Amino acid sequence: MNKINLKSYTLEELENFVHQMGQPSYRAKQIYKWIYRGQTDFEKMTDLPKSFIKELEDVAFISSLKIYKKYASDDGTIKYVFALDDKNIIEGVKMKYSFGTTACISSQVGCAMGCAFCASTQDGLVRNLAWWEMADEVLAMEKDLQEKVSRVVVMGSGEPLLNYKELIKFLRILNSPLAFNISYRRITVSTCGIVPYIISLADENIPVTLAISLHAPNDAIRNRLMPINKTYPISQLLDAARYYIMKTKRRITFEYILILGVNDTKECAYELCTLLKSLLCHVNLIPFNPVEGKEFKRSDDAKVREFEQILLENNISATVRRETGVDINAACGQLRRSLLER
Ligand code: SAH
After folding, report:
1. What is residue 333's predicted lDDT score, i.e. its pLDDT?
2. Is the pTM of this model over 0.85?
3. Which atom of ligand 1 is nearest to the CA of 111?
4. Rounded to a whole number, what is the largest CA-CA distance in the chain?
């Protein structure tokens, strides 16, 4: 008989399950709490009766992600490669900041978006991750680090808004007081700009920080970098952004990779100022992380500073992303790809 993976159950589903086993529904809460404390061994769930533990062991198990590889950077960043049950691999990154530990997690195996500068998408999409596999990325990091994750950014491989149903379940679990208990304000979802799902997310009443990968101040440049722009051009994207701000009252983050000679000129900076004028937003400038086999080069530091300066002078809030884990290939998809190549 195939055993049931209790990690794939929501609290309501667990309640049904324990009911069917003839147990009171508070047992579900007990098990649920243990799961999100990282426990996978029924025997160690000390508040459950011994007889129930025996029954559980016969019919159920609690899955966990295997750490396949782990790379630690000098700056405290740790990059994980996790092995899934079906032998696919995904990446997650732990970053240490003064305000706590941030987990950057993947939402899909591979990615279908085809952005010209990104390593995650080079072999296309393999599959969506289930919500509990995303939760497992966080749990696996917490277990390995022996500390709680205080922020989550869904900014690893994959396009989270194209795995929408599972993403929403995952966000609710992150927020649930009995599970991760992380405030929505400490959760960021990054998208290349799937307009209809930005609207849906705005309507969910889940006020996470939305990060939009913009990377260009006009459609001509963005079309070249991001195929999705041909479906949802910048004007539609910004309308969706305005709707998100209106519904959630949250400031949007725009991510902007600086690629030498492509989108890093003064003209681009001024055009971006005009585009984002009067929008409640913050621009995160990201020096491009070179990817093997791509012709793009990173902008030099002086150009990056100049770009930032122009935004600031025009009252657009902007920062240059502190680079972490450069020595361990911590950018999106690079590690998985290098391992697949071997
Ligand atoms: N699909 C989502 C989330 C995953 S990508 C999105 O597009 O936002 C996470 C971020 O990493 C995006 O802003 C993406 O554009 C950026 N990124 C991808 N490749 C990069 C590279 N080589 N250097 C710097 N940033 C990169």
Report:
1. 62
2. yes
3. 1
4. 71
Three-state DSSP string of the chain = CCCEEHHHCCHHHHHHHHHHCCCCCHHHHHHHHHHHCCCCCHHHCCCCCHHHHHHHHHHEECCCCEEEEEEECCCCCEEEEEECCCCCEEEEEEEEECCEEEEECCCEEECCCCCCCCCCCCCCEEEECCHHHHHHHHHHHHHHHCCCCCEEEECCCCCHHHHHHHHHHHHHHHHCCCCCCCCHHHEEEEECCCHHHHHHHHHCCCCCEEEEECCCCCHHHHHHHCCHHHHCCHHHHHHHHHHHHHHHCCCEEEEEEEECCCCCCHHHHHHHHHHHCCCCEEEEEEECCCCCCCCCCECCHHHHHHHHHHHHHCCCCEEECCCCCHHHCCCCCHHHHHHHHC
Pairing of strands 89-97, 100-104: antiparallel
Closest Cα to atom 18 of ligand 1: 118
Residue 50 CA to residue 88 CA, distance in Å, equals 36
Q: Among residues 207, 208, 209, 236, which one has the least CA distance to residue 222? A: 236
The tokens for 96 are 């240490």
- The pick from 190, 194, 299 for probing ligand 1's pocket by mutation, whose C-beta has the most ligand atoms within 8 angstroms, reads 190
* Binned average pLDDT, 10 residues per bin, the chain of 342 residues: 93 96 97 97 97 97 95 90 94 89 96 95 95 98 95 96 98 96 97 98 97 98 98 98 97 96 98 97 93 89 96 97 68 63 51
**CA 206 → CA 6, 175, 192, 313, distances in Å?**
25, 9, 19, 33
**What is the set of active-site residues?**
91, 332
Report the alpha-carbon distance of residue 74 to residue 33 in Å, rounded. 34
